[in-house]
């Protein structure tokens, strides 16, 4: 019995299993593709891209709230696949849109509609973030990499505006986004409290014991938070 439990745990922790879970919504969308209902694919792929984005961006504040949670640690270890899933579902969203509307003249005209323009801008930012979320880009860009990855907040704002402008019922959007906004407010408030506490603390005495442990900063990457990277 113990051996069966170990094998089951190993199966659940496998990367392929997690990727299969992330792909489940796309598998169900294939039924719409087979029946030619691309409108449903456009709607569902955009919705799931937004949902995975909300989950990914919520990991840091949730880890702050529940630092000892095994579930949170399990999710944090898989934040990179979650971030990639955001981009892949957004990519499916745009591919479905372009397939349903093959006339490039109409696509060019629709581009300047505010809700479509915001969607294109959010997609471009997500593509940049996905391409640069790797060790090679971190080494290549240096200090600029940190600022670049903070564009995830702008991408999220643009995607939220696009979502609100294209949804018939705004309540559905806010029900899914409100928890993320609340968690981000908590994270910012906690950071400000710590900064004030650090500013009010007495300075360290000269000649005191110096720690050999290097300073650490939180990685701002949309898929890597709250990983720490050494300065």
Describe the structure.
It contains eleven helices and two strands. With 231 residues, the chain is mainly α. Helix 2 (15-34) packs parallel to helix 5, helix 3 (38-65) runs antiparallel to helix 5 (79-100) and helix 3 (38-65) packs across helix 10.
Strand content: under 5%
The gross shape turns out to be globular
Question: Can you count the helices?
Answer: 11
Uncertain residue segments:
208-231
Distance, first to last CA? 47 Å
Q: How many beta strands in the DSSP annotation? A: 2
Helical proportion, percent range: over 70%
Q: What class do helices, strands and sheet pairing give?
A: mainly alpha
Series of H and E elements: HHHHHHHHHHHEE
Largest sheet: 2 strands, antiparallel
C-alpha Rg (nearest Å)? 21 Å
Overall mean confidence score, pLDDT: 80
User: Strand order, biggest sheet?
Assistant: 1-2
What are its keywords?
single chain; 231 residues; mainly alpha; 11 helices
């Amino acid at each position: 019995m113990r051996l069966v439990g170990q094998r089951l745990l190993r199966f659940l922790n496998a990367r392929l299993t997690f990727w299969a879970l992330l792909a489940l919504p796309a598998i169900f969308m294939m039924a719409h593709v087979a029946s030619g209902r691309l409108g449903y694919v456009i709607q569902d792929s955009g919705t799931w891209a937004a949902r995975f984005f909300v989950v990914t961006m919520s990991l840091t504040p949730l880890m702050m709230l529940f630092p000892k949670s095994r579930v949170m640690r399990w999710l944090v270890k898989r934040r990179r696949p979650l971030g990639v899933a955001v981009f892949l579902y957004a990519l499916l969203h745009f591919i479905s849109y372009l397939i349903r509307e093959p006339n490039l003249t109409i696509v060019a005209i629709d581009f300047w509609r505010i809700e479509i323009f915001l969607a294109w801008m959010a997609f471009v930012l997500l593509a940049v973030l996905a391409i640069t979320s790797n060790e090679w880009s971190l080494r290549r860009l240096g200090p600029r990499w940190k600022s670049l990855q903070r564009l995830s907040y702008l991408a999220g704002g643009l995607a939220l505006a696009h979502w609100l402008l294209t949804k018939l019922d705004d309540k559905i959007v806010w029900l899914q986004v409100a928890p993320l906004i609340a968690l981000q407010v908590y994270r910012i408030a906690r950071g400000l409290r710590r900064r004030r506490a650090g500013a009010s603390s007495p300075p360290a005495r000269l000649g005191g014991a110096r720690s050999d442990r290097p300073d650490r900063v939180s990685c701002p990457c949309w898929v890597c938070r709250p990983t720490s990277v050494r300065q």
